Amino acid sequence: MSYLITILAFIIVFGVLVTVHEYGHMFFAKRAGIMCPEFAIGMGPKLLSFRKGETLYTIRLLPVGGYVRMAGDGLEEPPVQPGMHVKIKLNDDGEITHIILDDHHKFQKIEAIEVKNCDFKEGLFVEGVTAYDQERHHFNIAKKAYFVENGSLVQIAPKHRQFTYKKPYQKFLALIAGPLFNFLLTLILFIGLAYYQGTPTNGVAGIEKGSPAAKAGLQSGDKVVKLGDYKVSDQKDLRAATTKVKDHSTTIEVKRDGKLKSFHITPKKKVYKQSKFNKETLYQLGIEAQTEHTLFKPLLSGVEKTLIAGKFIFTAIVGMIASIFTGQFSFDMLNGPVGIYHHVDSVVKTGIFNVINMTAMLSINLGLMNLLPVPALDGGRILFVIYEAIFRKPINKKAETTMIAIGAVFVLIVMICVTWNDIQRYFL
């Protein structure tokens, strides 16, 4: 039963993270007028699909990401290539309105053609030898034209609906929106947790057994007003004061039953391992803070936690990149789907709130990782757009396609290595 809960939690966490990321791309792409033929969760073979408007929504087998296909983004391959035999339907002006790729149709007055040359991005034409006269003809594609496959109509994007022909700021927004929506998800989850659980105050709800606070004589119901030379009005002040005091002996002043009392206390030093090469040192008192439910404090708490999480993840990513040049890099520093599943399995046992907190952290991690300047990722493609904005012309299309392909192969190899490393680490 626990395995089923873990699998369900993994599917929900993965689905939410990828859906939010890809929806961000599609949201801004469609507002820029870019046609989005497919919105996919997962990779590989198609499991489920449905069409809404001009977009096919799919769920695919492999939980290793997702994508939004944007017309003319250089990543899509048209279903018609030279050498194929297809059927076409023409309008009164001799323009192609339908390219028919199967026999599941009821069109009449159609032409069979062997495709010799075609362009579905810039020239928007098909050249080929027609069956009725065995002559080569050139056909322009109509402003509103479709591929007909598996009984469905897939519109052929005209130039003004393609990513390539949009302004740099529109491309930039469509690309950065994925990571941006991940950051927003983190913010929303942290704010939601703060509203539900309340925000911590300077009141003491409980004392950890054997902790510095217990040894000092603090009790539940106390309110911390001062630590050393630092005044305390909330939990944030107390954390900041503890960090400054470190593990040195000092005094802590509390209000108990309306009276001020002073105790001697020495914060406990604790080192947390963030990664194989990075550690974080914290100083703890062992106080469980009281919480309060207010209207505005959860908003501030959510923003603060998002910034702290962003800084934490960003520092870890920078450390990982630096380790490549120092020779200290290890695949243990990365987690693929298998590693995330193992992490979910551990966290789900501790309760729903920790799962939500983990989802928030994974979301901001996904956003930042996608901003890395690797051509196949959002960050790399954003660099191409910045180049276009600066030099007033897009980067050479062949060079861009080649770099994206190399980047995609690199990402795939890294994903395979990380997944195999996770399997060895957790299951072998």
UniProtKB/TrEMBL annotation:
Key words of the record: Hydrolase, Membrane, Metal-binding, Metalloprotease, Protease, Transmembrane, Transmembrane helix, Zinc
Chief place of localization: membrane
Organism for this UniProt entry: Staphylococcus marylandisciuri
Domain called PDZ: residue spans: 204-256
Listed name of the protein: Zinc metalloprotease
Family matches, as CDD domains: cpPDZ_EcRseP-like, S2P-M50_PDZ_RseP-like
Gene Ontology molecular function: any one: metallopeptidase activity
Residue ranges of domain Peptidase M50 in the record: 9-413
Subcellular localization, as worded in the UniProt entry: Membrane
Enzyme class: hydrolase
Family to which this protein belongs: Belongs to the peptidase M50B family.
Pfam families: PDZ_6, Peptidase_M50
SUPFAM superfamilies in alphabetical order: PDZ domain-like
Membrane association type: Multi-pass membrane protein
Domain of life of the source: Bacteria
Record EC number: 3.4.24.-
Cofactor(s) required, per the database record: Zn(2+)
Sequence intervals crossing the membrane: 6-24, 172-196, 307-326, 347-366, 403-421
